Amino acid sequence: MTKAGTTVAAARDHARAVRLPRRRGVELALIVLAVLLSVYGYCAVGLARTGTVPPGAVGYGAGLGVLALFAHVAVRIRAPHADPLPLPIGVLLNGLGLVLIYRLDLETPDDRAAPAQLVWSTLGVGLFIAVVLVLRDHRALQRYSYVCVVAALVLLLLPILFPAVNGARIWIRVAGFSIQPGEFAKVLLAVFYAAYLAANRNALAYTGRRVWRMQFPTGRVLGPIVTIWLLSVGVLVLERDLGTSLLFFGLFVVLLYVATGRTGWIAVGLLLAVLGAFAVGRLEPHVGGRIEDWLHPFATIEAGRGPNQLSQSLFAFAAGGVLGTGLGLGHSTLIGFATKSDFILATAGEELGLAGLAAIFLLYALLVERGYRSGLALREPFGRLLAVGLASLVALQVFVIAGGVTGLIPLTGMAMPFLAQGGSSVVTNWAIVALLIRVSDSARRQYDGRDAP
Amino acid sequence: MTEYGGGRPMARYIRHACAFCVLLLAALLVNAARVQVVQARVYTDNPANRRATIARYQQPRGDILVGGAPVTGSLDTGEQLRYERTYRDGPLYAPVTGFASQTYGTTFLEHSEDGVLAGTDAMLSPLPLWHDVTRGRSRGGDVVTTLDRRAQQAAYRGLAGRKGAVAAIEPATGRVLALVTSPSYDPSSLSGNGEAVASAWSRLIHDPEKPMLNRAVRQTYPPGSTFKVVTAAAALDAGVVTDLDEPTRSPDPYRLPGTRTRLTNEADGCRDASLRAAFEWSCNTVFAKLGVDVGVSAMAGTAEAFGFNDSGLRIPFSVSPSTFDRHVDRAQLALSSIGQYNTRATPLQMAMVAAAVAGGGQLRTPYLVERTTRHGGETVEGAGAHPARQVMKPSTAARLRELMTDVVEEGTGTQAAIPGATVGGKTGTAQHGVGNSGVPYAWFVSWAQAENAMEPGVAVAVVVEDASANRGEISGGGDAAPIAKEVMRAVLGL
What we know:
The structure holds two protein chains of two kinds.
Chain A: H1 2-16, H2 24-50, H3 57-78, H4 86-105, H5 114-134, H6 145-157, E1 172-174, E2 177-179, H7 181-206, E3 209-211, E4 214-216, H8 219-239, H9 242-260, H10 263-283, H11 285-295, H12 299-302, H13 309-320, H14 344-377, H15 381-405, H16 423-446
Helix pairs in contact in A: 2-3, 2-4, 3-4, 3-5, 4-5, 4-14, 4-16, 5-16, 6-7, 6-8, 7-9, 7-15, 7-16, 8-9, 9-10, 9-15, 10-11, 13-14, 14-15, 14-16, 15-16
Chain B: H1 10-38, H2 40-44, H3 51-56, E1 64-66, E2 69-70, E3 72-76, E4 83-87, H4 90-97, E5 100-101, E6 105-106, H5 108-112, H6 114-118, H7 130-134, E7 142-145, H8 149-159, E8 164-169, E9 176-182, H9 195-206, H10 215-218, H11 228-238, E10 254-255, E11 262-263, H12 275-280, H13 284-294, H14 296-306, H15 330-337, H16 347-358, E12 362-364, E13 369-373, E14 379-382, E15 388-390, H17 394-410, E16 421-430, E17 441-450, E18 458-464, H18 476-492
């Protein structure tokens, strides 16, 4: 006992010379800032709409603040070396999302989404705290990789048993709550990919045949992973949730590339993507229509049928200009359907302008960058791949949905991480942040001064 | 760099992947800048984008004021297009206000003063470019009209639903005191955007009575005998007649030059009558001959000085041009000179004729907007200088006043006489239709000067086109003059 204690103390002493500052104070300060910004946004909506500070401002601020504080305390206890940025970014984005949903609720008094979103956010932060407290070392996840993939597939298959909502079979309804199991599957698949690739990356990298500077892997190592991938994508195409299948595909390609360094993977990935997009675009009228909308957003206007959702979304972004109309003063509700979920970014774009949008993108970029940084700092491949996978998950998700609503790529329904209405998505994103915190804690604790984390 | 799992430099691939993700987010930002800044105008100006419309109705519209009190209002509907126009005494003021509809646009003052009323006029902004920076919009300003509430009401009451119109102006300034059309409509029925508005619109535009036609400024009528004021002015100015009481050496009936058509009179004693007698009893033969004697260019010159053939008159909404045809032979000129053939005039134009006589030969361009103000009442723009133009010699005007006074004192216009005021007038019963088969229009143009006033305070023109009346009964003196009288009394306060 004593000896062990001395060893730890010695190790600490040794590490202290090169150890990074813990930065928990910075995290707390940033959390306070994030909460204050959210409360400010909440008040700004009220002031713009009714000229008064909304009555719930104090409660809202206190609620968000307490949640954030609990999360912070959990980090202090169990992950004291963690990166100080992911948690405040999560709090700010979640707070901003609540403000935007609250603001849109004012236009639809019969359909209030903010209270439910607040409940989900609480659950999300609860999950965050649980993960940070329970999961002492992320490497423990490696042992459960096959459990993860089975769970992911079950979650993906589950909604097929339930009726389709708005053309997509991705929801299940339990006790009045609709849950999107595919959201949780993302994290589980990321864990599985990371674990599998960490175990097999050398086989993947060094075997196979070379075709003009690009090395292609053999079927034996490729088999299981492609099977899993095809299965998940097949399920998604069946469920008509194209955004998520795009996300899984992107995640798969990125992780394969990082694990093996083989550009051949990118070539295979792009080829598969083109083939898949072509096939799905041909076979699925739903998807074909989306591509048509993307190429000609004003086609319905010219046909005299009025603007479609995408053109309304573009109108909203354009109305925002550089500085935006101000919270509560835009007309993004003209988009009509899914303003609080898929099109939440249009409200941000219209009311906060390009400036606000740039800030939001920057927050996501920062979150992604911190994830990658942890990946760089870690020394074992599973942790690296997990960090990269989670960070890429966020980046790809943001790209798919934000690119869709701004007309950069064809629109596919997906939740903007933290901002959009949708409980499963918020909970999942908090789980992602928790894992990033866990991974970054390991990374910074192990830091030996050799490579800048 | 060696690693746990093998010798491959995974860090490099992580950096590449990271760069790729950052690239994706940067692409989002670039695309957002494209949509929000570079191509924003394309999206903003798209007619399917409702934002401009919503912003327009987001705040109460400024009001149109008559006699210091608003005749318009705004109703908060709580709908997407929030504020809807309301009108007090809508039918009474409809030819002035027009309508401001969320569905059908705007007309008349609502249209020509829309910038002020909607708050988009740059003059309303507290600082130059202020609203371009703040993305705000000024509170709608008010439009103060020159109308005289009581004159307007008197005219509307006088018409009593019969088809017709009244225009009254103040000769010394050109201020429009009354502008009435009948039958009228309630513009508030067109304000909103619902089903009821569409059906009201459809009913109004298909109504054979044409209630939305602004007869005072947008309908021209043959002026008939009231045009003899212009002919007399031309004859006096040209020196064709030098003495009001000298015989004009005109035959009765008068054979139109170059034709076999013989022009006759309703009244007797027109053969060789003096200008005074001919004016008083409205002798067609005398004025047809005078017009021919004056000649087409001098006749047209005088008519144009009064405002005929002017398509540019704005008060501030446009007034249909009254016409006097320059391309006529002598027979047509003879008919033109008694207000027939292609001679047509709006009621406002005939009020201007009376005003020029009353104003000593000077005519001021009529205007309807006294000033525009900010929401608080601070003046944004005044009426500005409305230049006078000399229509005829002052001596001619003085003689015409004498002639017109005679008409009211002892001629066809006795029903317009007002105790305590000098009134000058001219009746007209204009025939129209194929072979003059239509029900004639009854005209009366006049001016009035209170006994204690320095100059005439009002000039008015009334036209009544009543299809239901018997042809024999409708007449300028009988139908139109009493309306003119009430309007003049209202203005003079007698």
